[in-house]
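Try this one yourself first.
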């Protein structure tokens, strides 16, 4: 359940906090007072796209915070799967801070990515916006709506179908690609044969290129190396005056001659001897290294040619020797396929047919479930629509299928057919339904779906579009019933619906310190009656208007109590 909404620096809202209750929460207000900010801010907290212009003028950021209590074990399990924190009392605080150019989303203080938020948002609540009923006008959406009533039984089958269908499409694509003529196949085999022989003749060894690069670099710089090492050998040697070896030797003789005069001189003598030994070892190694630096033109040319050949192969095939070796294996397999092409293609065709049969089997199972869902929807939606002042409604879920026209969701086509008035033929919904009728049909679908999905919180933004009078009262009754088993938050401009509120909020615009701000206040009973009077459209809220509003409130209370 949504406990509270805290908004700061968002559009006209400087800072406000709303505490929602169980049952039916109604929000009313004058046109332009900022009712849409409520739904908009909830959508923003749940990850919808944020424009920097929504940040209140003069503020550095906008902040939206939603607090939920979680009683649904499915949501708790999802949070654990995502490794997200949950408070000991089962509450979660979802916060979004919007700054120019970026935003940060946190759940109980921990930053979460948008993909996790999207998965979670669909479980927490269901938002019906002002224009969502337009989805009913697209027949392509009807199958998805129908499937939502049987998600638990359909989901495993649809997942299996998607996997099989993906494999089927891969095989079909391969078959289409493999439609080679004999001449084309022969040309490909000749090219493969040349490439395989070229790679194999190189006798590639993983790591060989790095080793040869080092050897080439050394041979290419042998002159510089010889000169530097020879200089170092002379400077540290014993063959010329002033060299390190000669000077260290003289120093060692001097210290040895006096070492018996003081015990500390023994230590100095040992240290010098160690230095002399190390220097002598270095000198010998440098001499041996110089002897090994014989330059062989023939060997240098061989190393240079090998390195050039390896570079050419890497440029032509892959960036690494390991990649070239793997590619060669793939080319051999492809060669084997082309050599036995007819059998290979026959194998693909057989696999394609087997997958198609599996797909059709899954499609038939899914279609059978959809037939039952269609019967369920017809029966229950008609009852719900009768309650919403469609006394003569006829509704049918028309399901047709074509076994040769299947996809990842099956082979069914679903269309909602309706005849709202007596004597009319059933026709597609998008051909005859008005805006008010669409609103009521969507409300009926939402109420049925709420029972199936068991979502705790449902939000309706002006579900009353295009309705009035008795129909508006019927919609109010339906929302009242829905509020008995769910938390419902509804924005409305109709007094009939507002009268049904368990908790009533008013949204108003005020001017404070020459700035326009939007305020949201919870109304006491008397304040709610006055707001109903305003909604009734009276220019002056007289005693008669208030009496009418009070009577409407009492009728709503009587209905809820019954």
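Now uncover the answer:
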């Amino acid at each position: 359940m949504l406990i509270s909404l805290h908004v700061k620096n968002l559009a006209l809202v400087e800072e406000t906090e709303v505490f929602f209750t169980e049952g039916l929460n109604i929000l009313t207000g004058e046109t332009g007072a900022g009712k849409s900010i409520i739904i908009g801010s909830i959508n923003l907290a749940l990850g919808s796209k944020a424009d920097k212009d929504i940040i209140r003028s003069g503020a550095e950021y906008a902040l939206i915070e939603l607090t939920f209590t979680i009683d649904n074990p499915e949501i708790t399990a999802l949070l654990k799967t995502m490794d997200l924190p949950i408070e000991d009392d089962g509450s979660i605080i979802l916060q979004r801070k919007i700054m120019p150019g970026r935003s940060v989303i946190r759940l109980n203080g921990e930053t979460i990515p948008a993909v996790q938020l999207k998965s979670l948002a669909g479980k927490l609540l269901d938002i019906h916006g002002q224009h969502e009923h337009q989805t009913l006008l697209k027949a392509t959406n009807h199958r998805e709506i129908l499937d939502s009533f049987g998600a638990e039984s359909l989901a495993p089958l649809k997942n299996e179908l998607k996997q099989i269908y993906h494999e089927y499409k891969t095989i079909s694509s391969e078959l289409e690609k493999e439609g080679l003529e004999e001449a084309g196949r022969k040309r490909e085999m000749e090219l493969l044969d040349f490439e395989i022989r070229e790679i194999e003749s190189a006798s590639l060894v993983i790591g060989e290129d790095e080793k040869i690069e080092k050897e080439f670099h050394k041979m290419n710089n042998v002159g510089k190396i010889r000169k530097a090492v020879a200089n170092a050998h002379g400077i540290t040697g014993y063959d010329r005056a002033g060299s390190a070896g000669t000077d260290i030797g003289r120093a060692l003789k001097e210290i040895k001659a006096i070492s018996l005069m003081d015990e500390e001189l023994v230590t100095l003598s040992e240290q010098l001897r160690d230095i002399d030994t190390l220097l002598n070892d270095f000198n010998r190694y440098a001499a041996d290294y110089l002897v090994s630096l014989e330059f062989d033109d023939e060997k240098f040319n061989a190393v240079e040619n090998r390195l050039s050949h390896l570079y050419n192969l890497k440029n032509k095939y892959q960036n690494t020797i390991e990649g070239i070796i793997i590619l060669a294996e793939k080319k051999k397999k492809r060669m084997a396929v082309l050599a036995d092409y007819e059998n290979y293609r026959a194998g693909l065709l057989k696999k394609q047919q087997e997958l198609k049969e599996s797909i059709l089997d899954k499609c038939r199972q899914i279609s059978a479930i959809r037939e039952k869902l269609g019967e369920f929807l017809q029966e229950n939606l008609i009852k719900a629509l009768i309650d919403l002042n469609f006394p003569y409604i006829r509704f049918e879920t028309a399901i047709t299928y074509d076994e040769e026209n299947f996809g990842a969701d099956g082979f069914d086509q679903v269309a909602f057919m309706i005849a709202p008035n007596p004597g009319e033929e059933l026709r597609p919904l998008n051909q005859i339904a008005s805006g008010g009728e669409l609103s009521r049909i969507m409300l009926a679908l939402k109420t049925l779906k709420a029972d199936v999905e068991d979502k705790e919180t449902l939000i309706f933004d002006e579900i009353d579009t295009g309705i009035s009078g008795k129909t508006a009262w019927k919609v109010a009754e339906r929302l009242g019933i829905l509020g008995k088993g769910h938390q419902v938050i509804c924005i409305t401009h109709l007094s009939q619906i507002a009268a049904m509120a368990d908790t009533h909020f008013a949204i108003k615009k005020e001017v404070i310190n020459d700035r326009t701000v939007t305020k949201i206040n919870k109304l006491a009973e008397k304040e709610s009656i006055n707001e109903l009077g305003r909604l009734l459209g009276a220019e002056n809220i007289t005693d008669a208007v208030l009496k009418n509003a009070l009577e409407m409130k009492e009728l709503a209370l009587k209905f809820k109590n019954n």
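Discussion: The chain has a mean pLDDT of 85. The two ends are 25 Å apart (CA to CA).
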